[in-house]
Write a structure and sequence with these properties.
Rossmann fold; 2 domains; five-stranded parallel beta sheet
């Protein structure tokens, strides 16, 4: 009897762990899951979901007994929460366990952007250094002014790290937070206008769609640097590309894109952008912890116990 359905491409470790859960079955995608035999779909009470394709009411209705969607990852914007709530389906995610890795990558990308680490690596490997070619001087990061757009769990970890670089911390969030004297700004444009570097740590979804607009990028200015480790949807990519190509923005460091993995190839042609393959939480330890928390939520549900990290 299939009561638990795992949807997505899981690591061998996570797959083996899911296979040990009573009544578990796996499907590679939402489309594959939706095409399972009706009798199988009717038994499913909990779905372990790993993916970015839209999981809305139309898909949920294919599973009439569904009562839990346990998301793999802190971001759950692919899941239509309103549709889930209307059907009495609980939604969980995997917060906190990935904060450190995502924050580390944000800082690493900012350093890579300022000090041109990718270009420096190529300069050394290519033999240019040995041939006597000087590597150009680059930008100092420490002591600069940085804005955190979204001071949630991950945003706070990023700010704490950058404070150690003697940086002046500014931020925007829906409400002012208890901080060690960091400067709160009323809106993203005001934040961008006050800083040298802007790090996007927003949640995804309709409320933050294109929050980093052309106006925000213009306020950041021709020497400004944008770092995005949130969701590609939070940035107006067309506006970003235009400003990067025209020299109206100093640079960017991006781990997420609107159409990943097939991102806009205009980014690949730019020398002032650091590109990463959405690997913010991509370490063995953190991905294992995310999988464990996802399964723990399912186990709690199946045992009739309170969910560990319910978001809806």
């Amino acid at each position: 009897m299939t009561e638990i359905l795992a949807i997505g491409s899981y690591s061998p470790v996570d797959q083996a762990a899911l296979d040990t859960m009573p009544g578990a079955q796996c499907a590679g995608s939402l489309a594959e899951a939706a095409d399972l035999p009706e009798a199988t779909r009717a038994q499913v009470r909990a779905i372990a979901f790993k993916g970015h394709h839209a999981f809305d009411g139309t898909v949920m209705d294919r599973f009439p007994s569904l009562a839990l969607i346990a998301n793999y990852g802190v971001g759950y914007d692919a899941i239509n929460v309103a549709d889930a709530q209307a059907r009495g389906v609980a939604v969980t995610n995997t917060p906190d366990v990935l904060n450190d890795d995502v924050a580390d990558l944000a800082v690493g990308m900012l350093i890579a952007q300022c000090r041109r680490l990718v270009q420096g690596d190529h300069h050394a490997r290519s033999g240019a250094w040995a041939a006597g070619q000087d590597f150009p001087l680059n930008r100092k990061m420490s002591g600069g002014r940085v804005g955190i757009l979204g001071l949630g769990r991950i945003g706070r970890e990023i700010a704490d790290r950058l404070a150690a670089f003697k940086m002046e911390i500014h931020y925007w969030s829906r409400r002012e937070k208890d901080t060690p004297g960091w400067q709160h700004h009323a809106d993203p444009v005001a934040l961008a206008g006050a800083v040298d570097f802007l790090v996007v740590a927003l949640v995804g979804g309709p409320e933050t769609e294109s929050m980093v607009s052309g106006a925000v990028l213009d306020a950041l200015g021709p020497k400004g640097v944008l770092v995005n480790i949130s969701r590609g949807s939070t940035v107006d990519e067309g506006a970003l590309l235009d400003r990067l190509e025209e020299g109206r923005l100093g640079g960017a460091a991006l781990d997420v894109f609107r159409s990943e993995p097939d991102f806009d190839r205009r980014f690949a042609a730019l020398d002032n952008v650091v590109l990463q393959p959405h690997q913010g939480s991509g370490t063995h330890v953190t991905r294992a912890a995310m999988g464990q928390l996802q399964r723990d939520n399912i186990a709690a549900f199946m045992a009739g116990k309170p969910l560990l990290t319910q978001v809806a």
